[in-house]
Amino acid sequence: MNVRVYVTPKKGILDPQGATVERALPNLGFSGVSDVRIGKFIEFRLDPPPGTTLEQARATVDEMCRKLLANPIIEDFTFTVDEG
Amino acid sequence: MNVRVYVTPKKGILDPQGATVERALPNLGFSGVSDVRIGKFIEFRLDPPPGTTLEQARATVDEMCRKLLANPIIEDFTFTVDEG
Amino acid sequence: MSPASGRVRFGVVVFPGSNCDTDAHHAISTFPDATAQYLWHKDTDLAGVDAVILPGGFSYGDYLRCGAIARFSPIMQAVRDFAADGGLVIGICNGFQILVESGLLPGGLLRNMGLKFVCRYVNLRVENPATPFTHTCREGDLLRIIVKHNEGNYAVDPTTLAQMKARGQIVLRYADAHGKLTPAANPNGSVENIAGICNETFNVFGMMPHPENSVEAHMAGGTDGRTIFQAMIDSALGRAEVKA
Amino acid sequence: MTSDYVSRRADVDAAVKLGLTADEYAHICEIQGGEPTYVELAVYSLMWSEHCSYKHSKPVLSRFPTSGPRVLQGPGENAGVVDVGDGWAVAMKVESHNHPSAVEPFQGAATGVGGIVRDIFTMGARPIVSCDSLRFGELDEPRQRYLLDGVVGGIAHYGNCLGIPTVCGEVYFEPSYEGNCLVNAMAAGLLRADGIVRAKAAGIGNHVVLIGNKTGRDGIGGASVLASQEFDETLEEKRPSVQVGDPFTEKKLIEACLELLHGRLVVSMQDLGAAGLTSSSSEMASKGMVGLDIHADRVPLREADMEPWEIMISESQERMLSIVAPAKLAAVREVCERWDLDCTVIGEVTDTKMLRIWWHGEVVGDIPARRLADEAPIVRTPSVKPAYLVDDPVAVTDAGYPPAADLGAALAELLAAPNVADKRWAWEQYDYIVQANTMQIPGGDAAVLRIKGTPRGIAFTNDCNGRQCYLDPYRGAKAAVAEAARNLSCAGALPVAVTDCLNFGNPEKGDIFWQFEQAVEGMAQACEALDTPVVSGNVSFYNESFGKAIYPTPMVGMLGLYDDVSVHIDHSFKDEGDVVLLLGPDGAWIDGSEYQKVHYGRVEGRIPDVDLEAERRLQAALRAAIGRRLLKSAHDCAEGGLAVALAECAIGSGVNGGTRYADPEAAGAAGRWRGADIGLPEALLAAPGQPPGAAGRPDLALFGEAPTRVVVTCAADDVGTLETLLADVPHRRIGVVTGEDLRCTMAGNELFSVPVSALCAAYESLPDRLA
Ligand SMILES: Nc1ncnc2c1ncn2[C@@H]1O[C@H](COP(=O)(O)OP(=O)(O)O)[C@@H](O)[C@H]1O
Ligand SMILES: [Mg+2]
Known about the structure:
Chain A is of the alpha+beta class. Chain A has two helices and three strands.
C-alpha cells in the first residue's frame, strides 16, 4: 500500500517558516499570497501482513502519525492510503 | 485560490530523514514499512489580480516553486491549485 | 532523597547523536559532591542514579522533529518511572526537546524565529527560585549562559500557559542586560521569552541554554551554569528545603 | 563464459570522454597489456584526474618543508600529525569543496565538512576543531548572498550536528570569486602520539569491510557518459551528482570508528572520499604493497540496479573502508551494530598487488594498485608570467588617490566593508563551544582551546589575502603564512605547523601555473623561516568561470601550541590607563589595501615584501611578553591597517563572552566600551622604503597596510619591563586606553575622534547587507 501523510503546523501555533516565506515572496515579485503554512509530506510503502483490510491499515497509519510522524501538541495531520 | 505544494527529495538522492525514520519504525512496533521519503507540504492562499486564469495562476505557482519553495537541484515538486 | 555515599550520582543519557553528553559529564566532574556516569539509550534501567541529565545534541539527527525518535528509546520508560517517583530530571536543549516530545513537560519547541541555528550568550532571568534546579538563586537573578540550537522556540496553548504561570512552572526567561524581557533579548522567538520550564511537580526541568558549558572560570563560558547543578546536588542531598 | 563487462573493451574515444588524454590512454593500455575494460577505464579516469593524482602539482609541492622535530606524520596520509606534548598529538588537514558548493551551497559545504572530518578520525584522532575559509563574489549580487547563506548554513548543519566546535574561519568578498566561490574546510583532532593509524592494508587473507551508509549514484555525474553512451541505454538519464550529507550517520561513524581504532579491532582504516571505493581501496593496497579483491556486488546499495563501475566510483558520503582480521570480525560487527551502522565484508587482502574488482564471481577489472594510485603520469605545464604582471608593477603614487577628506568617516566605511566587518552573522550559526575546550571564541585573531587534563593548549587560524596574492603571488603567499603565524603569536601561541589549501585556476594555462609556482615558493620560504612545516594540504585547480580565474588563493591553516594555555590573551582593550604600543616597522602601503579597494575602487600596485627575519623576531618577542603575562591585549594589523586594528581592539572591549551588549547604551552604562587616545608620530609618514607620495598623507599612516605590525596594550607599570623585552623589535608607544571614544591625533592635529559605539555599529552592519 502507498501511504502519504501530510503534517501541518496546528492552527493557532506559530509557523516561523511559513511566516518567513510569506514575507520573502513579495520581494521576489510574487504578490497576493497569504496564510502560508509549511509542514511535512511523508510518503512510504506499507506491506501489512496478508489479510489486513484497508480499514486496519488506516488504523495503523493513524497510530503511526499520532505516535511518531506528527506531534499532536503542535501539529495536525491527514493521510491517504492507496492499495497498490 | 488554495494552493498545495508537495516537495520531495529527488529520486536517487539520499534522504537521511526518511532512512532514519524507516530504521526507527520497527523498534516502535510498526513493521512492513519501506521507501520512506520525507519532504515538505506547503499550503497557502493565492489571490491573483482579477481576471487571472487558472492556467496563469498555475504558471505563477510553478515559478514560485522553482525559485523559492523547492530546491530543484535536489528536490522534485508537484502542486494543486483549487479555485475557492 | 539522600544518597548514601554523600555524593550525588548523575546519570547522563547517551542517545545516538547526543553531543553534549561528554560536556555534561565533565561539568558534573567539577563538583566535589557529585559524580557522573553515562547511561546508554538501549538500557532499561537507570543503574540507581540520583538524578538524570538528558543532554544536548542531535539525537537521531533531529530528523523528523527534535527528540521525536529518541523519546521511544528503551531508557525513556525508566526515566518516566523515575520522574513519576519524584526523581530529578533535567533536559538541556535536545534533552528539553525530548522531554516535551515525551509529554513529561508541556508544550513544544518550534524552529527558531530567524530560521537559523543560533549560538550566543544570553541572559536568563530567574522567574521561580523555588525549584530544585534554581533554589540557589534569587528571583530576578540574571544568569549568563550560552544557547545553541535551531529549534528552541517554545510554544504552548494559551490555557496551558496560563496554568503554568499560575503554578510557577515558568522558571527561566530570556532578558536583556538590565533584566528586561525584550524581543531583542529573545534568541528564538519563544513565547513570553520562555527559556526553561518545570513540570507540575517541579522535579522535571527543561531548558534550552547550556549550563554545562558555563562551569569553569578560565573557559570562555564563565561559571553561571554552576548554580543549576549545585541546586540539583543540594536538593538530592536533602540539603535544601525546596517547596514544590 | 564472460559477460559484457569483460568482453567489451574501452577505446580511446571513451577515454577522452572521461577526461583522459590519448597519451594517458596509451599508457593505460600499456599497463593493462591491452585495451582496458570499461570498469578499468572508469577507475583510471578518476584516479588519474587532477583531483586524485596531483599530476600538475606534485613536483611543485615537493618544495614545501614537511618535517621537523614535532612532525609525527607529514603529507601523504589522510591528515598530518603534530606532537603537542604530554603524549598528545594533533591531526590536521584542509580540503576544498568549491565546485560542489557552487552547485548546491548548503549540501556542498555540509559534505565538505563531513569529508574533512573523516580524514581526521581515520587517523585515530577525536575531531575537536572545525574551521572554514570562504570566498564569494561581492554581496550586492543576490546570487552571492544566496551562496553565502547556503554555505554557512551547510557548515553549521553538519558541524553542529557532529558536535565539533567551529572555532575559526574567514570570509572574503571579491569579484573574482563571483562564478567560483571557495569553500575550504579545515579540521583537527586530538590523539595519543603513539596511536596514529595509517591507511595501509596488511595481512593477506584479512577482510575488507565497508562501514556506514549505503552506496548510491552520488557524485558520478561526470562519468555517466559511460552509461549513456556505451554501456546501458536503459539506465536513468538523470543522475544526482549532488551529494546530500547525513551528519547523524557521520556522528555515529566517529564514535564507532574511534572505538574500533582505539580498541585495535581493525588493522587500518580509510575514508571514502573523491573516487570512493576506487581510491580508498587502491591507496590502501598501494601503501601496504598488497593486493585487494573487491566484490562490488557485495556492496550494500541504495539503488538496486547499479553497475559495477558506478559502485566503484560512487562518492556516497559517510562510508569507511577498513581491514579486519578474521578473528576480530565478530567484535567489529558488534560495535557497528551497537551504533546502528551497516558493516559488510566486501573483499579480502591478497598478495597480488592488484586491485581486482569482482562482479558476481567474475573479474571485471584487474589493475596494478601502485600504478593506479601513485604513478599517474606527471604533467608539466611550462609557466609563463601573466600578462597583467609582465611589466613589473610599481608602487602607486599620489596620482589618482586624493586623501579621504573625513578620516573618521573613512574608518567607518572600512569597518563596514564586508571584508573587514564583523562576521558574527556567520559564526553565531556555529556551535563554537561544544566539547568544552574553547577558551577564545571566534572574532579574534585565533581560536584557543585547552587540552583537558593538561596545562597545554592549542590555537588555530586560517589566513590568505587573495587580492595581495593576485598582485604578487610570491609575496602574497609569503604574507599569508606570516600573518597566520602572527595571529597565533598575538594570542600567545607558538606557531608549529601548516595545512594549506591551494586554490587556483586552470593549471594547464602557463600563467596560472606561474601563479601556483610563485605562491608555493613564497609559502615554502615563509614556512622555513618561521619553523612551521607543511604537514598536510589540498590543491584545488580549475577554479574558473567563463575562462576567468579566481585570485590565486593559497589558504594557510596554522596550528599553534601552548605549554601553559592560561597565558593566552585576546585583542580587546582592557583597562583605563593601559598603554598602547605599535610593534613593527614604520610605513604602510596603499597598494593592494582594503582602503584602496573600498575608498578608491582600485586594485593595483606593488605589495610590500615580508622581512621574514624581522617577522620571526617580532613574533618571538611578542610571545615572550605574553608568556610573562606582560600584555593585556595584542592584535595584528591586517585589512584596513592600523586604524582598523585599533578600532577592533576598542570594539572588542564591549564584548562579554562573545556577545556584544545588545544596545550600545547598556554597554556604555556598564562602562564596557574602552576607547583610546592615540597620538601618531609624524615619522609614520616618511617611513623608509615608502614612496615619496606618502609624505603628508596621514590617511596612509592610518589605513595603509604592511606586514609585521601588531598593536598591544599593557599596564602602565609594565611598560618599562616590556620595552626591555622588545629591545630588538621596532616599537613605539602610541597612546593610552581611555574614555569611550577612539581619538587619533598627529602632531597635535586631530585626525578623527569617534565614539566606539558608532564604530561598533559600522562594524556590525554586515547583516543589513544580507537582508
Ligand atoms: N598543498 C598541499 N600541501 C601539503 N600537502 C598536500 C597538499 N595537497 C595535498 N597534500 C597531501 O596529499 C595527500 C592527498 O591529498 P587529498 O587527495 O586531499 O587526500 P584525501 O583524498 O585523503 O582527502 C594528503 O596527504 C595531503 O595532505
Ligand atoms: Mg582521506
